[in-house]
Amino acid sequence: MKLKHVFLYCILNNFYNNILLGFYFINDELYRIQNFSDNSLIGNIYCGYVKDVVKNIDAAFVEFGDNLKGFLSLKNIEKKPKSGGKILVQVAGDKIKTKDYALTLKLNLSSDNLVMVVGGSGISISRKITDNDTRNRLKSSLSSLDTGEYGFILRTSGADCSMEDILAQADLLKKQYEDILRKFNFSTSKALLFENNKIVNACNEFINKYSGEIKTDNENVYKFLTNSRISATYFTDTSISLCNKYALGKHLKNTLSKKVWLKSGAYLVIEVTEALTVIDVNTGKAEFRSNKEKTFEKINLEAALEISKQLRIRNISGIIIVDFINMSKKESYQNLEDILKSYVDCDYVKCNIWGMTHLGLMEISRQKKEKPLNEIVGDK
């Protein structure tokens, strides 16, 4: 999948509340909205303070930064930390409502084409590189990195890079980790050791992975991007704003609406609760032809595509339950499940389709990383 446009800018009106958002478009269709104004800590590395170790849940509660609290799973960790000690941790998930930050001991450091996993092993190739001969060639070329001390993941963009460049990036990542380790050894508890630059990383990944174009009409953002050696276009058309040209206000307003209309006249109702998200598929104004079963199947397939988009754009995570229109044939449900799985394959986080319950509801789970869009900009 090749993204065509991404826009990073600060929208100065009441609805957007001065929030810097990145709107990703694929062939003029909205793919994702990313928040660049939040205080996301994902990717930051800290010298954490182990407040408490709870054996019955095999986890620890760790304090870091400005008295922030995080949850650290200790499953499959042989050497357990002790209460009162310091520990090297990375933020893997932001604080969401009542849940603490998610922390990990497996540190990830990334470059343009490579991800290094501290404590990991082996060489992995991006799943989007599908040609087996190419995968084997790349894995063989990178075999010298497999020392057992670090694991490496070659990104999709790395397939076209020289091995010299990839190996040089690996050396830089190792040096970066060694620098973090030195800081950790001489730091007091809760200290920030490495700060992840969200905008720079997101833009670099976007450019390297998709060869996309970045546009902004915010002078400060443009200067920041160019100073960070990121190629961007400064939008200066005085006859129309970037927001109006691409109907960004309309896109955002539609994304926050509970009701989503489909081309057939059917619609979705999306209800987000503390525990889970419920999506109801309704026939609405859809025209019923002589074969109702075919009509229901067609609406459900249309709804499946739109649901995959809405989960991605709204960044809905956790447990999702979908009440599709009832169909009489088992094969229709199996076809619906298979097609929905193919749709979520292009998601930027892991999304699992677990199938139908005994009550005829589709179960979905989507990885939690960042805050959902409705929490960022607020419901209107």
Task: Please outline the helices and strands.
Layout: E1 5-10, E2 20-26, E3 29-35, E4 45-54, E5 59-64, E6 68-73, E7 86-93, E8 101-104, E9 108-110, E10 114-118, E11 123-125, H1 132-141, E12 150-154, H2 163-186, E13 191-194, H3 198-210, E14 213-216, H4 219-227, E15 233-234, H5 242-245, H6 248-256, E16 259-261, E17 267-272, E18 277-282, H7 292-314, E19 318-323, H8 330-344, E20 351-356, E21 362-366, H9 373-377
Parallel strand pairs: 1-14, 6-8, 11-12, 14-15, 18-19
Antiparallel strand pairs: 1-2, 2-3, 4-5, 4-7, 4-13, 5-6, 7-8, 9-10, 10-12, 16-17, 17-18, 19-21, 20-21
Helix pairs in contact: 7-8
The major β-sheet equals: 6 strands, mixed
Beta-strand fraction estimate: 25-35%
- The rough form would be described as globular
Q: How many domains, in number, for the residues?
A: 4
Report, as a whole number of angstroms, the end-to-end distance.
32 Å
Q: Helicity, in percent?
A: 25-40%
User: Mind telling me the C-alpha Rg?
Assistant: 23 Å
Spatial order of the strands forming the largest sheet: 16-17-18-19-21-20
> Low-confidence spans: pLDDT under 50, at least 5 residues?
1-15
> What structural class is derived from the secondary structure elements?
alpha+beta
Order of helices and strands: EEEEEEEEEEEHEHEHEHEHHEEEHEHEEH
Mean pLDDT: 86
Q: Number of helical segments?
A: 9
Number of strands: 21
Give a quick precis of the structure.
The protein contains nine helices and 21 strands. It has 380 residues and is α+β, with helices and mostly antiparallel strands. Helix 7 runs parallel beside helix 8.
